[in-house]
Specification:
The structure is a homodimer. Chain A is mainly alpha-helical. Helices cover 64% and strands 3% of the residues of chain A. Chain A has two domains: 114 residues; 329 residues, Neurolysin, domain 3, CATH 1.10.1370.30. The first copy, chain A, contains 20 helices and three strands. The first copy, chain A, has a three-stranded mixed β-sheet with strand order 1-3-2. In chain A, a hairpin with a 2-residue loop joins strand 2 and strand 3. Chains A and B meet through helix 1 and helix 2 of A and helix 1 and helix 2 of B.
Amino acid sequence: MTKKEAFDTLFAKNEAIGALDMAEALIHWDATTSGVPMKSIEARGAASGWLSGESFRRFVAPDTQECIETLEALDGELTTIERAMVREVGRRYRKAKAIPPEEFQAYSTLLAQAEPIWEKAREKRDYNMILPYYEKIFAFQRRLCDWYGYEKHPYDALLDDYEKGASVEMLDRFFGALREKISPLIKEIGASGQKPKEIKGTFDIAKQKELSPWLCDFVGYDRERGKIGEVEHPFCTTINRHDVRITTKYHEDNLLSALYSTVHESGHALYEQNMDEGLTVYGLDEEASMGMHESQSRLFENIICRSRAFAGQLLPKLRGLFDYFADWNEEELYRAVNIARPSLIRIEADELTYSLHIMVRYELEKALIMGDIKPADLPGLWDNEYEKLLGLRPDNLAEGVLQDVHWSSGAFGYFPTYAIGTAYGAQLVNAIRKSVDVDTAIKNEDLSPITGWLKENVHRHGAVMLPDELLKTATGEPFDAKYYVDYLSEKFTELYL
Amino acid sequence: MTKKEAFDTLFAKNEAIGALDMAEALIHWDATTSGVPMKSIEARGAASGWLSGESFRRFVAPDTQECIETLEALDGELTTIERAMVREVGRRYRKAKAIPPEEFQAYSTLLAQAEPIWEKAREKRDYNMILPYYEKIFAFQRRLCDWYGYEKHPYDALLDDYEKGASVEMLDRFFGALREKISPLIKEIGASGQKPKEIKGTFDIAKQKELSPWLCDFVGYDRERGKIGEVEHPFCTTINRHDVRITTKYHEDNLLSALYSTVHESGHALYEQNMDEGLTVYGLDEEASMGMHESQSRLFENIICRSRAFAGQLLPKLRGLFDYFADWNEEELYRAVNIARPSLIRIEADELTYSLHIMVRYELEKALIMGDIKPADLPGLWDNEYEKLLGLRPDNLAEGVLQDVHWSSGAFGYFPTYAIGTAYGAQLVNAIRKSVDVDTAIKNEDLSPITGWLKENVHRHGAVMLPDELLKTATGEPFDAKYYVDYLSEKFTELYL
């Protein structure tokens, strides 16, 4: 196989996989934004299964290996982008091939059963319903560590699957810093007795919807190259580079929910819209890592749109729509969108406490993989960790160990990307501040100096660099948790103490 | 290749093609019901092209031929449904293989250019813009006749492509009957001086929308197994057997437009929803022919929902929504939905004159294929035919020869299916009347005796039978234009003369 043949083969695969994945994305969009007839679920699932199966089959076909071997042998002759393509294809191919097919089949069947069982278990608050599934899933994940391979810690193999290059060593350091600085801060804040004014009331949904386009435009998400849908659980999906869609959900009694969800998904969409089009043929038009994607959404959601400067821009908009805000001032609004209060449910957590929820899951996953704890002991250990880190103890399993779908869907090693991404965001904004006056940009309602920096240094590169390299190139430093810890400490100390 | 291998191979192809076609249907639904970002059209087109190309490639792969040969040799051993599958696969395969690939490639490119040129030519009313495209397209169509093959008339090859078994012989007889009976009737009606009261005014679109579910339910389209979208040009699309979607378009100044469009598409949807699920694996869960599909939509649109009995049911609904109808009576409404008046635009034509629009196109296509006329002469000939048949002469090309997209998109031999389908509908309802009191069913707002008959005799069979066999089995007679001619003559004579 010549170099040209190898690339042409991979390009053709990318074209096929791109079209199949686009179809899958549209099927998902269609089902979530406008609903699916109940009776059609089986036929739809079968078609969807064929499409995703075909995408996988094309990727793992034997000629992929031949291409990889041919091109890896030519490493010195390759351009940066070609080398990145070979690296990513090789990485994914070896992972896909690492799992014995019959094990993969059985595991897929297990997962298909586990998720609905988890839903019932959560509803009935009955851990014993899901326990046998957890036991099998966790055992599979442990074997997965060996199939994937690792150098230092078996859990590294799983972490790396979601966040390329992540390891126990890196995460222990990261969470160690949070444990040392953020956990005491939360307790101090709790003890301070500060009670900021809260946004409470009902807010007309039609009016809330008027706010969304402004928020998208503010972040820089190009609505002409996408659309906005409404769903139960908001997400961002890419149909192609010029059709990146976001979703949101409006709650009459929670104004901030749709507002920050729209900003969050706009941040994701901006990343997708700004990737170089030339990357598509190489299959590199995707995020550097899940954490890097999350960094973009959280950066806008929290650092930009929970800033004092943004409260100044938001308040007149809110006043124009809701009489409720007539007697509010900017400082009150700033404090209201930054209420920090330990809670039990991760997805409702505030900026300050969020990463501690992740820490609980990280520590438990790590201990499970090492065999230090048993799946049967998770509920009690979970509650103890929450009490220790956040000072709260769940009343029931639905607010405790059964709140997340991830474990029943086999996503093990995934949670940390949420926290790492948030920390990447803080490091990136720290770098941006060296050349950009962030507050002025917000006050001008013109984030182009920020989004331009992100496009140039992060977005356009897609998956060409690994996340650590990308972060280092963009910020001049390797990943360092201190930017995130310092940011949180300074912001919330100033707010509360 | 054994019988089992041949069937398994074809079943696997059907699964793949079904999934790919479902993706295509969803892409089309998504684009038409909620719009596509302009900049995404190219990438979307590329993905869509890959999906439809893959569907085609799988179908024309060499092993399809081996399956066909294996199974055709076993004809005596096959069940009815197996034989139908082999017939349909063989038919489509031979057509697909008949066109030399390089010719097909050049023709596809030509068509991609021609359609936007046609739009501009229509807009500018400039026939010379499209003429060179028409010349090449028509020349290709003539060669297509030879590639497909025919027994009597070259045009038969094209007619059969859209309506299996249709021929010049059949259509000359059919249109001859219309020419003889319907054309004079139209002129008589014109001369009668009758001027029925017309529905004129503006009708709130939100209220029009309240009517649609009732219309769907009335026809028997199961909204729980589909959904209703809004588009520029209404259509019905099948995602799967339990997700059949219709579309409509509301016009404030034209109440009847959405009303009859909803009924029409519901008729199509009913056919799709009622096909036996067991046909899917054989790829036979589709219409017996395009004409048969059109028969189902037109039957409900015209024979059922432009009946006196239906006017009786519709009037109270309209009164409940629009004060406008306060002083209308049933007879006035019946006459208002049946105004017959020669016009120039096919898609706006009434029930009586519609098929004459088709006849103009049929005669011109036939003469073009025979080389009796030249593409350059079409505008004048078109106008002459309209004057002769309908007593009207177009003022410009947009109301004349440039009104339809079909020729620029290569759909040659397609128009007749609209008229044949309408005639099938009349023959089917004539047969239904032998066992069902149609007017009473309408008055009871319970069409189940009619839809039950159609499901049993037409819908459930999908593409197992050819259309002529299906019609003969259902009605006891081969296709006969007299039912359609008699139906129109009686209805409109009673109304107008």
